[in-house]
Amino acid sequence: MVTTISADRVKELREKTSAGMMECKKALTESNGDFEKAIDCLRQKGLATAAKKASRSASEGLVSSYIHMDKIGVLLEVNCETDFVAKTDDFKGLVKDIALHIAAANPSYLSCEDVPQDVIEREKDIYRAQVANKPPQIVEKIVEGKLDKFFSDMCLLEQAFVKDPEQKLKIKELVTEKIAKLGENIVIRRFVRFQLGEKQ
User: Fold this and answer.
1) What is residue 44's predicted lDDT score, i.e. its pLDDT?
2) pTM higher than 0.90
């Protein structure tokens, strides 16, 4: 039996996801009218689209600042491909949200690749010492799990977005969603966070 997809349902999905009308209709058809599955379908397609765009050069963008109660300051550079996208409210909103997130979550590194190897090895040594009484075959699995937790605490791209009520959406996924929506590669280039009275 073929599910009939109403125009109102397509419009509702389009408003929620900002995807094109035809993509929304196709997603609803593929998911037999299940709204949540249609959203997942669009997100998966967006991720595939975003992966294709990741190799494109991103040399435009914004340098933005955020000051929280005159106590915490953030400087952030986020790049995109064109100045047209850099001037959109969507892009500016993304940059503002990331700066606010950095102020709140205090990441030490941009990505896992930026964590120095000696820091990773030191963390692994600490974790191994914590589980020394466990069977050897599970020690490394525990260490890897703890290291993943370390990355999700310390690396901006791995952190859960502070404005996501369920704390499931990572910063890298937030960026990927914007890439899919805006149709351009977006890269968080660098950031610095200052806190009043903090020692260098």
Assistant:
1) 73
2) no
